[in-house]
Amino acid sequence: MMKPKRINQIFLLFAFIALVSCKNNEGSGLSKNVTGKAGELIVVITNESWEGAPGELIRKTLAQEHIALPQDEPLFDLVKVPPEGFKSIFKTTRNIIQTRISPNVDSIGVSFRDDVWARPQATVIIQAKNKEEFEKLFNENKERILSYFVNAERKRLTGNYNKFFERGIYNVLNENYGVTMKVAPGFQIAEQKEDFIWFRYETPEISQGIVLYTFPYVSDSAFTVGYQLKMRDSTLRVNVPGPTAGSYMATERRVEQIYNILEHNGNYASEMRGLWRVMNDFMGGPYVSLAELDAANQRIIVAFGYVYAPSKDKRNLLRQVEAMIYSLRLNNQAENDKINSQVKMGN
What we know:
It is built from nine helices and 15 strands. The protein is α+β, with helices and mostly antiparallel strands. It folds into two domains: 40-161, no CATH class; 164-346, Mog1/PsbP, alpha/beta/alpha sandwich (Protein Transport Mog1p, Chain A), CATH 3.40.1000.10. The strands form three sheets. Strands 7, 8, 9, 10, 11, 12, 13 and 14 form an eight-stranded antiparallel β-sheet that branches. Strand 13 (284-294) and strand 14 form a beta hairpin. Helix 3 runs parallel beside helix 5 (131-163) and helix 5 crosses helix 8 (315-325). The chain is globular. It comes from Mariniphaga sediminis. Pfam families: DUF4837. This is DUF4837 family protein. InterPro entries: DUF4837.
């Protein structure tokens, strides 16, 4: 057994190392957590540029209307800060765009930097010698800039859920459905069947929910909008009742669904966004769904996330649900990796 004196010496050694480490990190910002509200983005720009074409371009891109919400909400809440006012209070903000438009800039271009003054932070620096050059640079990179900040918001949420998640739901999904998902603490299972599970978080003011269900993969038609809507609405009608007799959840068909094919964890997948409603009642709101091919089991797994928050902004609430459903992982991913590799080699 180690003697007490030796224990004290080792403790002091680690304490000294920790103290030196903290001092060395002072001023680097890396020991600081990001500040600001979810969806907030600081734009460091002169008053002249903000009122001119550069500012208009930034607002048009980053404050454009968020898709598939029942009310107008911007993608990001922009906060304009002049360069001389960009002090420490703003430098720890989660999302930052720094603009430098001057004939004296050292080099022109767009750079993406993580964790400059805090973590997890996303910073874009755009340097141009004049407004025309700025406009050209921004237009060439605007899709990348947009996706960079959107992904940063999702990664922060995912990071939180990786640390703190509802283990009961995680275990049920793992043991009974062959998948895992990390959802925020407070979610509870509302209904559970062989190929269906519904869990939700309820308060007097908001409701967030995720419906996960599976169906056989018979052909590529399983990834058409029409087929997925048919499977979703038949599943919701039977399993997700509304608040009044004869009411049930369904897709709002009077607005167009926004649909994209993508890969998730290397698996063929699709994302759909739009609005949902309760038939024979007056409830509704936005949704986002992820349908993923489990080729090893010849099935489609769908995670349908929704928000109900009347008279409230829904963007951040929907992003929370989105981060949860994108944490979906197949237990047999190694088998799917082999199949996916063979398919790609065949193509």
